[in-house]
Amino acid sequence: MNTMDYDIVIIGAGAVGCACARELARYRLNIAVLEKEPDVACGTSGRNSAVVHAGFNNKPGSLMARFCVEGNQGFETLCRELDVPYRKTGKYLTAFTEEDVDTLQGLLEQGEANGCEGLALIPGEEMRREEPLVGGMMALHSPNTAIINPFLYTVALAENAKANGVDFFFDRELIQVQRRGAGFLLMTKDGSVYRTSFVINCAGVHSATVAALFGIVSYHIYPCRGEYFILDQEALKYVHTPVYPAPRKGAGGLGVHLTPTIDGNIIIGPSAEYIDGEDDFATTKQVMDRLLQEAGQFLPQMTERLVIGSYAGLRAKQAPPQEGGFRDFVIKEEERCKGLIDLIGIESPGLTASVPIARYVARLLQGRMELAEKSDFNPVHKGIPRFRELPLTERERLVRADREYGEIICRCETVTKKEIRLAIENPLGTVTLSGIKNRTRCMTGRCQGGYCMARIADILINEYGFAPEDIRLRETGTELFCGRVK
């Protein structure tokens, strides 16, 4: 049996796992990331509201509050380094009752205690100068809230980590752990074996399951599903700023909100429903009907006519259903299993807090191993150029240099064949239709892949040698074809 040796193995390639990989890639270490899915951002990191939070929702003194505020303050600079689109939109939390107003006042005070800047409680009429169609008697305005593309963010973290020497292994579900002296032997479902001195558990909803493989059985994660609608870009004429309700006490999330995306859509959601399955991403008619109803309280124009898609994500909640609300992040080396650093209950604002969390993990390791900085670490990453967003002169230049920039594969989002090719040939070496979609925006427009999916499959088969049976939407079991008909 071939065993691969590493100083550190990270379990999970979501935003936090990839941020840890990139942060630790600054040091002369041999690092691997194991991910049970076929790509990065297949779990919570790719199924959320795509918001960079300001930090007023979290209890003062908590790791959640500390890392959220720190992450928010550094996110714009980080996105410039990683070539990830970022837009500071601000956010409004609206109050419809006197009880809601009291809630907003409490959040204002909490945010100020956490170090959030610029928060203000304003009359509804003042909010409507910016968002004339949004209802509510009062609003809490958060000017430093922003939106990003969480797929591109996680991909950029991973690709930058890989460029700096980190190895990524996909379709590698951890199933068995053995102690070997001061380190561990890790066995994955495909039969691979990894020997390492330290393990960082960034498995999200599966973090308690992974911890149990190391004999740590004190954690329990309660998956809480949030369902979303995706609205056509036409809806952007109705609202331009994320709009949230005043949160309700004991709820599993922040309430159903309207959020513009960096790509010009609006999303409605999420719901908050505790479920049993750690991989249950179903959307349900009952919940989706409720989303439209609740969104209509903010904006009556948000009707089913605008819906072009839906999705669901899972929060890794430590608080059980009868408690609700939020418990703080757990980030520590386990006393009963030295060498294991557990990250448990990393739910929202985990995306915003991902890099501060990674820095904290690095500090935990500093006292346990030598962290010698590399002289050649490069923090800069360049993503796939977005053809439709480029100036006309730059598009003309690209077409002259490579005619595949002149061939449109996805008409809804104006994605070129060259962009598709760059996504297929991504540095992580992972190819699924969802991975191509997440890197280019193909299959996300009004037709939801009705036009471009077959053309992408044709490119994979005829230009890259894929057998039709090997083309997957996501994980094993989501193959699109069972052979040829002619």
Structure description:
The structure is a single chain. With about 475 residues, the chain is an alpha+beta fold. It is about 30% helix and about 20% strand. It contains 12 helices and 22 strands. It has helices spanning about 15-25, 65-80, 100-115, 125-130, 150-165, 205-215, 285-300, 355-365, 390-400, 415-425, 435-440, 450-465; strands spanning about 5-10, 30-35, 50, 85-90, 90-95, 120-125, 140, 145-150, 165-170, 175-180, 185-190, 195-200, 220-230, 245, 255-260, 265-270, 275, 305-315, 330-335, 340-345, 410, 415. The strands form 5 sheets. Strands 1, 2, 9, 10, 11, 12, 19 and 20 form an 8-stranded mixed beta sheet that branches. Strands 13, 15, 16, 17 and 18 form a 5-stranded antiparallel beta sheet that branches. Strands 6-7-5-14 form a 4-stranded mixed beta sheet. It is globular.
Give the arrangement of secondary structure elements.
Elements: E1 3-11, H1 15-24, E2 31-34, E3 51-52, H2 63-82, E4 86-88, E5 91-95, H3 98-114, E6 120-123, H4 124-130, E7 138-142, E8 146-148, H5 150-163, E9 167-169, E10 174-180, E11 183-188, E12 193-201, H6 207-213, E13 222-231, E14 243-245, E15 257-260, E16 266-269, E17 273-274, H7 285-298, E18 307-317, E19 330-333, E20 340-344, H8 354-366, H9 392-401, E21 408-410, E22 415-416, H10 417-424, H11 433-440, H12 452-464
Parallel strand pairs: 1-2, 1-12, 2-9, 5-14, 12-20
Antiparallel strand pairs: 3-8, 4-8, 5-7, 6-7, 10-11, 11-12, 13-16, 13-17, 13-18, 15-16, 19-20, 21-22
Helix pairs in contact: 1-5, 1-8, 2-8, 10-11
